[in-house]
Every structure is written in structure tokens, then in C-alpha cells.
Amino acid sequence: MPRVTGRRRACPLAHSTLFLSPHTPNTAPRRDIEGSTGLWEVLDESVMDLAIKMHHACVRKCITACAGYEAQVEGDSFTVAFHDANDAVHFCIELQVRTQLVMVGHRREPAV
């Protein structure tokens, strides 16, 4: 894994962005539903409301499981803070796994 300090780098997992700072002991991934603006235009409002509800529940389970906390929520966008970059990466991976399982219709979530 490449070393990243004081840079903004796209996280290929979970469509998140990691903000890593060499000066503070924290990492703050940002997460949102990719293409949600376009989805709101073509899908029924009840479908999007359910998608947002499921997304928020999934993100919050991963935050708890990975020792993070919500820093900010706006619409479907989350900024999550972690004291340890490894926990942030674990969050991105775990969230990607959980959302992929939801998208393919599995109801059982993997253990963290």
C-alpha cells in the first residue's frame, strides 16, 4: 500500500475520499451515493427514500464496527472521522462489502 501523508486520495472502495493529515491523529473518509442526483430524477421518491434509509443504516453500522464517529451528514453524504487510518481503511472496505451485498439482494450482513 502506498504511503499517503497530507494528501487527498480517492479511496477505490466505497466511493470514498480519505483525507490524511500528517499533523493530526485522524482520518476522515467522505461517503455518498454515487449518482444520487440523477437517481432522484428518474426513480420514484419512495424508492430513493428507502435507498437513503438503507444507506444511512449501513454506513452507521460500519462506523460503529470500525471505531469511527459521524462528523457530518448532509443528504446522502457522510463525513466520518477516525483516530487511526487503519480503522478508516477498514471502514471503506467493510462498507463496500456491505453495500455490494445489499445491491445483489443478500439479506445477511457479514460479521465485522
What report would you give on this structure?
The structure is a single chain. The model is unreliable at 1-15 (pLDDT under 50). α2 packs antiparallel against α3. The protein is globular. The protein has three helices and five strands, in the order βββααββα. The chain is of the alpha+beta class and 112 residues long. Strands 1-2-3-5-4 form a five-stranded antiparallel sheet, covered by helices on one side. It has a single domain, classed as Alpha-Beta Plaits (2-Layer Sandwich). It starts with 7 loop residues before the first strand and ends in a 9-residue tail after the last helix. It has helices spanning 36-42, 45-65, 85-103, and strands at 8-11, 16-19, 30-31, 69-74, 77-81. The longest helix is centred in the middle third of the chain and has 21 residues, at 45-65.
How would the blueprint of this fold be written?
Blueprint: E1 8-11, E2 16-19, E3 30-31, H1 36-42, H2 45-65, E4 69-74, E5 77-81, H3 85-103
Antiparallel strand pairs: 1-2, 2-3, 3-5, 4-5
Helix pairs in contact: 2-3
